[in-house]
Design a protein that fits this description.
Radius of gyration: 13 Å
Number of helices: 0
Mean pLDDT: 81
Shape: globular
Strand content: 35-45%
């Protein structure tokens, strides 16, 4: 896979089957590089996307919910461009550390 420099986003309306290995089934093929998939249901918001380093890892982030104590990120959509805060860091595998600001990847 190639490095990803920019992201767009798409909303999804159906939660993936709980028995699947990955959020989108048994293969990663449904998660396209450069697209952040956003899901919202019952006060739980999630984002799925491929790691921008090109390793192919799927990153799953919980979007901030002040009522929960789980690790979470703040999502802002402005002019159809996505920003996450704070930075995103892979603790395993490729160990990538980056921001996504207005759809662009900024490496730490």
């Amino acid at each position: 896979m190639e490095k990803i420099d920019n992201y767009t986003y798409e909303f999804i309306s159906e939660w993936p089957d709980k028995d699947h290995v990955h959020p989108w089934g048994e293969t990663k093929d449904k998660i396209k590089p450069g697209i952040i998939y956003l899901y919202n249901k019952e006060n739980a918001e999630w984002a799925w996307f491929r790691c921008p380093c090109g390793c192919g890892t799927i990153i799953v982030l919980r979007i901030e919910n002040p009522k929960q104590s789980f690790p979470s990120w703040i999502l802002t959509v402005n002019n159809n461009l996505v920003t996450f805060s704070p930075s995103i860091q892979q603790l395993n595998g490729c160990k990538s550390h980056f921001f996504i600001r207005e759809g662009k990847v900024i490496w730490c």
